[in-house]
Amino acid sequence: MRADAVVVGGGPAGAVAALELARRGAEVVLFERSGYGGLRMGETLPPAVNPLLRALGVWDRFVASGPVPSYQTASAWGGPEVAERSFVFSPHGHGWHTDRARFDRLLADAAAEAGADVRRGVAVRGVRRVPGGFAVDADAPARADLVVDATGRPARIARALGARRERLDRLVCVARVFALPPGTPPGDTFLEAVPDGWWYASPLPADRRLLARFADARFVAAAGLATAPGWAAALASTAKTRDLAAGTPIGPLRVVSAASHRLAPVSGPGWVAVGDAALAVDPLSSGGAAFAIESGRRAAAGSEAGYRAFVGSAAAEYRAVRREVYGWEARFAGNAFWRDRAEDRGLEVS
Q1: Between the CA atoms of 22, 62, 150 and 37, what dihedral angle is there, to the nearest 10 degrees?
Q2: For the domain that residue 140 is a member of, what is the CATH number?
Q3: Comparing C-alpha atoms, which of 45, 41, 35 is closest to residue 10?
Q4: Looking at the chain, which terminus has fewer C-beta neighbours within 10 angstroms, N or C?
């Protein structure tokens, strides 16, 4: 199978890159290893995604998919009192809580309708250079002039081609979904700072709520947070979040990396990285989805210099915001988790 471009990974960044390339007349193959089933993290979308979805022409189908409006966030951060931040002054309106698998599938469907060959349930084992482009090792092998790495935080394709991740931390998310009792108000996004990290709660469509604990990988292992008893004990010790654990747990704990990194470089001869592969941000920023969509759009535009400048600017802005927001929490300033982030420490290359 020969194509102008192969996109590896069907999350928002990869799907949007495939969509935009197909609209520009390219023959595109998108490989997504899943069938978009099961839980995917990143369910909260900020208001900044609204103009992006309108520009892509998928706004109406997104609204019809049943996302839950998000009008504000609340947090116990920097002190024990709960403070609220409304989206009422956002120029883009309110945010959303969505079924992330459904959202990703929606974008992949749009790419297919634009002419991209979307191959679901097909894992890519590797990509290598060959005369005239790249060979993609998969159950449906392909050759292409351009490869788009949308493999998420692992950045598997770009790293195999010589790129390296400049890592800021080893943040891990341990999450669980609860089915809410009938009539339970869904609430909105809530954050609670604790000595070795923070808790997050968010409503999901279909009367569900996600609760998640964020901490560095070493602490997660030492405290047993990846086990049901350890996670439950940590939840019970919180001052606020424990009150949101209503209903029945659905499925096991889900443990995923939430580490921050920037890829260097983010593009090279015949390849480009998008989304979390290019720049992975702390979920605290709520900026991952908007960056993923915009990176897919800009990568498809074909200006390598412009794309590198875009990612560089986004990375610098993210580090400044990350340092500021973590610096607001002074109660635990002596803890390495908070100190390293407030002082912007912890850079390693992998």
Answers
A1: -120
A2: 3.50.50.60
A3: 35
A4: C
pLDDT in tens, 116-175: 999 999 999 999 999 999 999 999 899 999 999 999 999 999 999 999 999 999 999 999
Instruction: Centre a 10 Å sphere on the Cβ of residue 5 and count the other Cβ atoms it contains.
Output: 27
Residue 225: inside a domain, yes or no? Answer: no
Task: Render the burial of 128-166: b for 16+ CB within 10 Å, e for the rest.
Answer: eeeeebbbbebeeebebebbbbbbbbebbbbbebebebe
Number of domains in the chain: 1
Within-domain flag for 208: no
Q: Which residues face 3 on adjacent strands?
A: 144
The neighbouring-strand residues paired with 174 are 213, 255
| 279 DSSP β-pair partners | 262
From the list 157, 159, 168, 124, the residue with the least C-alpha distance to 257 is: 168
**SS3 state at 60:** helix
